[in-house]
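Researcher: Structure for this, please.
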Amino acid sequence: MGNVWQDFFDNHAPRYLENSFTKDTLAEVDFLVEELDLPPGSSLLDVGCGTGRHAVELARHGYRLTGVDISDGMLEQAARAAREAEVEVEWVHADAARYTAARTYEAAISVCEGAFSLLSMSDDPLAHDTAILRMIHAALGPGAPFILTAPNGLQKIRHFTQDDVEFGKFDPLTLVETYIMTVEDPRGHREVHAREKGYLPSELRLVLEACGFEVQHLWGGTAGRWGRRPIELDEIEIMAVARRK
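Model: Predicted structure, token format:
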């Protein structure tokens, strides 16, 4: 697919669960189960599922899961986790911005930078993210719940300086951060440029509403600290709880 994030996550997949923000999966899944408020057997779409840490645990709770991710490496880890947990999950290798779901789901999640807001150098930020939201909208039945987390634009504004703007590290018009990542593949170590878009809470609400969702709550969404609480200025992510109109 030629996406820089695919290359990065293929390389990072075996070490992904070493990240500190992955350590509260059980509590996060308990929160999702309570907030989605759906009976076991309901069908859930996990967009940007990564190593399946949420999808596998949700499957343990009796839900029918489909996980979509751009990275083969991450999906390999996810499939291994599902086998070890003795649960069935449908894994789909696809770019969420170009994917079309094959059926209708009763809920969807896209959390912990799971495709939404992760940009290659050629992506238009708004077009990329609205394509993902419209795909999810089309995949959901009327009134179906959707939980999304997105990088906190407030934190980015407070973090970057005017020098960062002038050096091209941060675009104040789009709240897009550009940085260099190291990727290891058969060609050896190489540095690649990647971009990540931040969202102001009001902007996230407007984008979701424009894509056909009714936003019910905007909460703090930093991994490991999910809850029904106000957004803090310097936390990493914000959470939107919405429903398909």
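Researcher: Any notable elements?
Model: The helical segments are 4-12, 25-36, 53-60, 72-85, 125-139, 153-159, 162-166, 201-210. The first helix runs from residue 4 to 12.
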